[in-house]
Amino acid sequence: MAQPVAAASGSPAVAGEELLDALGPVKPRWRRVVLKMSGEALGVTTSSEAISGDTVERIAQEVTVARERFGSELAIVVGGGNIWRGTIGVGAGMDRATSDYMGMLATVINSLALQDAIERHGQPTRVLTAIAMAEIAEPYIRRRAIRHLEKGRVVIFAAGMGNPYFTTDTSAALRAAEIEAEVLLKGTHSGVDGVYSADPRLDPDATRFDELSFSEVVMKDLRAMDMTAITFCKDNNLPILVFDLMVEGNILSAISTGSIGTLIR
Ligand code: UDP
Questions:
Q1: What domain range includes position 50?
Q2: pTM for the predicted model, two decimal places
């Protein structure tokens, strides 16, 4: 059974500070962003803990620095795959909707872990859930989310869309459109730093695209995000930046210059 959050093994110096010093004063490329990360990005592969304290700490640190240095308005959507995924229960014979609700609850656990870590850095946050649970988070109300962002709070959207049969990729795309974010930052965790012509872990000739159109992604069936999310972003002119979340400093680069990974628009 999964264990609670693994302790952070001492904070890394100040993640991204060196990169920022090298960049000098930066006017961020994006004014308002939604950062999507998979639950598995927070997971621990080497032990049974559900959440890596080190990873949560590093992300919290970069998010806080991004707020302080760039002033960009920042919302986060985190998945639940490190704890539960709808397909796990379905594979074991469970009712799909029930299993999906379990997945949505898993995203709330991850959201609270991120909230805790970000607030320990002094950055105010609000968790807004699509499933009411008033004791631990605010309900998702679009205008309230925008107000929080305008006040400089980091908003964490939890419980997906509140509807089974969807993923948190699609939830992130929907929330980004609703709050009129300029970009959806899709952080990957599998060591692939963007969108490639083929899986670079299997094909040494695979090449990374710096930029792609939505039509190319759909036509070539490129694996950037859940296809429902891709078509939603296409229909709503919402660019997606796919980048490697696990490289220190990359959240800062994605927000400040946007010149890493693959930009789909
Ligand atoms: N989920 C859902 N509706 C939503 C968002 C998520 O039913 O709007 C469920 C679904 O079962 C999914 C699980 O929550 O498998 C966890 O989300 P996801 O798989 O997107 O997490 P990630 O792969 O990003 O960690």
A1: 28-264
A2: 0.93
